[in-house]
Design goal:
Blueprint: H1 2-10, H2 12-38, H3 45-70, H4 79-92, H5 94-109, E1 117-120, E2 123-130, E3 134-140, E4 149-157, E5 166-168, E6 175-184, H6 190-205, H7 209-222, E7 233-238, E8 243-252, H8 256-273, E9 294-297, E10 304-307
Antiparallel strand pairs: 1-2, 1-5, 2-3, 3-4, 6-8, 7-8, 9-10
Helix pairs in contact: 2-3, 6-8
């Protein structure tokens, strides 16, 4: 037993394993120390996040490089063994390899970045972290109406960028087209209603109208997309029950719920000021029971007689 332990201790491979383990621990400990140290001097959350990810990735690269140096004299003889083992590992860890490939595609291809709001594999949320294997989202929607946080943290495999569409709400053009509908009774002053809606939409969009136009022009220069109209549009449709106005407008993807609340609040205020010239319509449905039908069969004549 003692001779076996002595041979293991004096074996060159054992020394290299210990040296490699020490080198990896030192590199990772130094990486963690640097991350905690720079956190005190970087105030911007985005810059702090990117610096932390860069230092972490650099630490992993240096650790792999250190292990390679330690075993540099053994790599030549292990090439065949690594090749055979690599094929088996690649088959067993294909999902992990696909996730790493997805991370490379996300990082280099600009699919999304921390801070973007995305929807992938029917999960919608704000990207709060991108690691080598998973993307972490702060979920929005689900049982909460509007684009508001649910409080759940969702981790999605990076491999899904190759399997499912990725909807990005904020990349390049951080605005969305949204709509509201307003039913107005027949007999109301529909011209006044259209004028009222036009004024309200222009009122709420004036603060970032130039930003919308500049962002869309950048989209036109970058992609093969038509130069669409980003101005508010109001259309009218006469239904069997009322006159229906549809207001289409561009809004910041974070302010969809706020915008609808503001527009409907202002609409109700203006309707109250119209002296009943504008009246909203609504549908009322009443469910009534049907008439009673009794059927009696006559045994003598063999013919049915019906009494309502």
């Amino acid at each position: 037993m003692g001779e076996t332990v002595r041979r293991l201790l004096y074996n060159p491979v054992t020394g290299k394993l210990i040296a490699a383990a020490v080198a990896v621990m030192v590199v990772l400990a130094l990486s963690g120390f640097i991350q905690r140290y720079i956190r005190k001097y970087i105030e911007t959350p985005e810059t702090r996040y990117r610096a932390r990810k860069f230092i972490s990735l650099t630490g992993y690269v240096v650790a792999v490089f250190a292990v390679t140096i330690v075993f540099s004299d053994k790599l030549g003889g292990l090439t065949v063994a690594f090749g055979v083992a690599g094929a088996g590992v690649a088959f067993a860890l294909q999902e992990v390899i696909a996730s790493v490939a997805g991370w490379i595609a996300i990082s280099l291809g600009g699919v999304y970045s921390p801070g973007d709001r995305i929807e992938i594999d029917a999960i919608k949320g704000d990207v709060i972290d991108i690691s080598i294997l998973r993307t972490t989202l702060m979920e929005v929607g689900e049982w909460v109406k509007g684009d508001l946080y649910t409080g759940r943290i969702v981790r999605v495999s990076n491999s899904f960028v190759f399997k499912a569409p990725v909807y990005n709400y904020s990349a390049d053009f951080p605005f969305l087209w949204d709509e509201i509908t307003l039913p107005v009774r027949y007999g109301s002053d529909w011209k006044l209603a259209r004028t009222m809606l036009r004024g309200l939409v222009n009122e709420v969009l004036v603060e970032y109208a130039h930003q919308i136009k500049d962002s869309w022009l950048e989209m036109v220069r970058k992609y093969r997309v038509e130069d669409a109209n980003v101005e508010p549009m109001i259309t009218l449709h006469a239904t069997d029950n009322w006159i229906e106005f549809t207001v289409r407008y561009v809004v910041d993807y974070r302010k969809r719920r706020w915008m609808k609340d503001f527009l409907f609040t202002r609409i109700l205020e203006e309707i109250d000021k119209s002296d009943n010239r504008i009246r909203l319509a609504s549908a009322t449905f009443e469910v009534v029971t049907g008439s009673r039908l009794d059927v009696h069969l006559s045994g003598d004549e063999g013919a049915p007689s019906q009494n309502k």
